[in-house]
Amino acid sequence: METDPLASDPGLLKPMRILGLSSFRHDTSAALLVDGKFVAAIEDAKLARTPTRGLPEAAIKFCLDSAGLTWHDLDAVAVATLPVRGWARRSWGAASTSPFSPVAGAYYEANELGGLARDLSNLRILRHKNGTSSCRFLNFEHHLCHAASSFYLSPFDRALILTLDEEGDGRAGMLALGEGTRLRPLQTISFPHSLGWVYSRITELLGFVPQKEEHKTQWLSMEGEPVFKQVFLDMLRGKNSPLPCLDSSFVHRGVTGHLAFSGKFYRHLGIPEGDASLGDKSLGDDQRRALASSVQHACTEIIGDLIEHYRKREGVEQVCLGGGMFQNVLLVSDLEKRLGVGQVFVPPAPANSGSALGAAILVWQQNNAVRFEPNADNYWGPGSRSHEIKDVLDNSKARYVVQSTSERKLDSTIQLLQAGKIVGWFQGRTEFGPRALGNRSLVASPWAPYVKENLNDFVKHREWFRPFAISVPEEDCARFFESSPLCGSMNSLATVRASANALPQDFCLPGNRIRLHAVARKSNPLFWDLLKRFGEHAPAPMLLNTSFNLSGEPLVARPQDAVRSYFCSGIDALVMENFLLSKSTATHVLAGTRAS
């Protein structure tokens, strides 16, 4: 049964064990909130090693097992979707935008009914798992969950909240006001008036995978000029309202009932009309860069104007952003420039996976009079004990050495880095969210020769225009960069100071910007220590940091994932807790260690 998220429930008093689940459509996840603190959270794809939809079975099992709980121990299960309302909104929107296309409408409606049936089936499975337990099941509006994960994880007591994604429960976004313990919705943005949908379609037109590779469009945009920006503004900007408003003449519904760009869109751009699902092969490199730059700049301007309007109307300065649109760090960085550094907050996992956190927090906040207090970090995924790692290595017939102390582990790693090696760094628990924040990272010296080429050609196999991040201790940031608090979660960009010449220019983006990871000693003392010690032997305490995974795969989570990625790529060495693997015969690195 769908529940009003703002109604108090006297029958559910202070639930202390809450399982939060994302919506079931894509990037599914689970999170466990115990006594007001997240003790476990993971995206299902990181365990399944492939994109998942539906019920996040593996993620749920991990969350329960990690806390030693069963379904009967839970007080509440909260799901970040209202499937019936979402179906009704999508169906109404399709009917209103294609009244003269009954075939397309019927095809679309059949697909929507199938999706609704799957969502309802997943909810029934959840209730079946619960059996005779007194655990309550609650459904929340998708964008309200995004708003909750953004506001309640922020340091702000009062803030404007904006959520934007392609579509969730038939809506493309929400504006709300967060005040202390309360969320007050102000305005919703209905689909198809979706900046996220347009951004995904341009991603597809450029030959990238929609709903997966929008980050490529983002980085490509920095290489072009926004010559088509006005076309996107004409298509997306409302005439009498600051809210996004998709001009229906720029789109049409195809034979399947799904929206696509119309001939008018292609004529205004001056490019041939083609099949966007295959990527337009007729586009030249300059056109692709210009398209990416134009949609990026147009979305930034529309969102900035929207925030300014509601910020002034509500008399509030601070802003919380949620939803998949704000995984775009270039967008966030440009909004920070306009709205003020320190005035903007984005949660570590702003997209669909993070809605699981928001759903759990909403239940907790409904039943507690005090404001939710967020965790200091987001290392909530699987960790591994020494005997578990040893079993994996032995079963893999891998040769390794054991570092008996943390000191030796750090010293050995630094020697490898000084020798120009690419090192897999697998420590502690897996990060929740899309970023590698020092527990599941590939690290290398930014001063090593050909390090970018080696990572791109032999490990990541990715496009030349995509940047690598630089990790630096939080207290050293100001020496080299003008940075944002959001650099701690890699949700914004920094600017290299004119006086700082330690970092090679190869890592700078246009405008002297850089993708920065500021590491706090409190949240990750081991990685912080590695940076500090490396800085004693290098021009600065900095390491190149990129996600530990193979191309197209999610971040590694378990030892077997790390070992597979290590042996299937050009990674030179792997430091997995106290176990060290190296593909070279660097005896000086292995000195003083015990081999197996």
Description:
The chain is built from 19 helices and 23 strands. The chain is an alpha+beta fold and 596 residues long. It folds into 3 domains: 17-145 and 356-366, Nucleotidyltransferase, domain 5 (2-Layer Sandwich), CATH 3.30.420.40; 154-346, Nucleotidyltransferase, domain 5, CATH 3.30.420; 386-595, DHBP synthase. An 11-stranded mixed beta sheet has the order 17-18-19-16-20-15-14-21-22-13-23, sandwiched between helices. Helix 10 packs across helix 11 (329-339). The radius of gyration is 24 Å and the shape is globular. The termini are far apart. Mean pLDDT is 89; it is low at 1-13 and 591-596.
Strands, count: 23
Radius of gyration of CA atoms, rounded to a whole number: 24 Å
For this structure, the CATH topology of the largest domain is: DHBP synthase
Number of individual domains: 3
**Terminal residue distance:** 57 Å
Q: Which CATH class of the largest domain applies here? A: Alpha Beta
The named CATH superfamily of the largest domain: Carbamoyltransferase, C-terminal domain
Low-confidence stretches: 1-13, 591-596
Structural class: alpha+beta
- Percentage of β-strand residues: 15-25%
> What integer is the average pLDDT?
89
Q: Enumerate how many helices there are, as a single number.
A: 19
The CATH architecture of the largest domain: Alpha-Beta Complex
